[in-house]
Automatic annotation (TrEMBL):
Pfam families (UniProt xref): Ribonuclease_T2
PROSITE patterns: RNASE_T2_1
Annotated organism of origin: Halomonas ventosae
Keywords for the protein's UniProt record, in alphabetical order: Signal
Protein name per its UniProtKB record: Ribonuclease T2/ribonuclease I
UniProt-listed GO biological process terms: RNA catabolic process
Length: 257
């Protein structure tokens, strides 16, 4: 084992033990004929730095507050459902269109076309803090595209998403990313940090997304989770292999000035 992994393993054990004691149990979600979820988490400074026309959540300081403390929520994406596959929809088309295959996306502004989510006040406030993109109606878009056609209740879907985000942000993997913000690390070092936090071989369930020149700027991480074992996350047995992402061998982890 590489020497730098040993302290990460100890940190991971401590973090996960405290997390198990401190958190409410994560409840599962119904899985209507699909195999797994992809948990998409954004590294907010990298996302903002990669945009030629930064959205509101990048321009307004209060929406960037706390970004140095971990990932923020992009979405929780079910894999291709059997009923769509039976109609000839392939995985690529499902990722591109999702539930808009059944309910076409309205023209014009998504914020104006879709009513606000019906969430309990406390959940809405927590989602505001964890998903800066809600300022641009990201929450409404994510639910309409990935969950509305699959009998996933709004409150349950976002409660589970927040619980998953919290578990990642309490891990030694997130600690490694936070520690190295403003610098550059090897792509394999990120994968090794993930395995140090969640178990040997789990790096296959991690997809790293990078943008910018040479795909060197970390913008997002995606984690595959067995739909039937969502409540067990981050147990290694419930993680699902992801396709390889698009990051160079050296990765820059941006920070806000």
């Amino acid at each position: 084992m590489r020497a730098w992994c040993r302290p990460l393993l100890g940190l991971a054990a401590a973090l996960l033990a405290s997390l198990a004691l401190a958190q409410e149990p994560l409840e599962g979600l119904p899985a209507e004929g699909f195999d797994h979820y992809t948990l998409a988490l954004t590294w907010h400074p990298g996302f903002c730095a990669s945009r030629s026309r930064p959205p509101r959540e990048c321009r307004e300081p209060e929406l960037r507050e706390g970004a140095e403390r971990g990932f923020v929520l992009h979405g929780l994406w079910p894999s291709l459902p059997e009923r769509f596959a039976a109609r000839g929809v392939d995985r690529r088309r499902w990722w591109r269109e999702g539930c808009f295959l059944e309910t076409p996306r309205p023209a014009g502004s998504f914020c104006r076309a879709h009513p606000p989510l019906e969430l309990p006040a406390a959940l809405g406030e927590a989602l505001d803090a964890a998903m800066p993109g809600r300022a641009s109606c990201l929450g409404r878009y994510q639910y309409a595209k990935h969950a509305a056609c699959l009998a996933l209740p709004e409150a349950g879907y976002f409660s589970a998403s927040l619980a998953l985000l919290e578990r990642v942000n309490a891990s030694a993997f997130a600690a490694f990313v936070i520690l190295n913000q403003g610098g550059e690390v090897g792509r394999n070092a990120l994968i090794n940090a993930f395995e140090a936090a969640f178990g040997e071989g789990t790096g296959r369930a991690l997809r790293l997304e990078c943008r910018g020149r040479g795909n060197r700027l970390l913008t997002e991480v995606r984690i595959g989770i067995d739909a039937a074992r969502l409540a067990e996350f981050p147990a290694a047995e419930g993680l699902v292999r992801q396709d390889r992402g698009r990051c160079a061998t050296r990765v820059r982890i941006a920070t806000f000035d």
